User: What shape does this take?
Amino acid sequence: MTKLENISMIKEANIYFDGKVTSRAITLADGTRQTLGVMLPGDYTFNTQDAEIMEMMSGELEIRLPGEEWKTLHTPETFNVPANSSFDLKIKTVTDYCCTYVEA
Assistant: This one.
């Protein structure tokens, strides 16, 4: 899906890692929560509460999911992150992403 309609958005940005990762939180008409953001090159570790579906819309990165080895992803790619876990990213180029939260 390249266009989102009938959404609500929180105006205040989520800013992480000294501004190198930013996002905006939105809620779709059906109640699905997402964030739309940009990650600048760097190494990051993220913690999850809910399961997440991460969709890369542009960029290149390396990812290490729980219990897995590092792997390189190129756009377009989607990956799933389990709830209550953490994952590591090495962002190689500016990366545009959409994160969908999967509530249990």
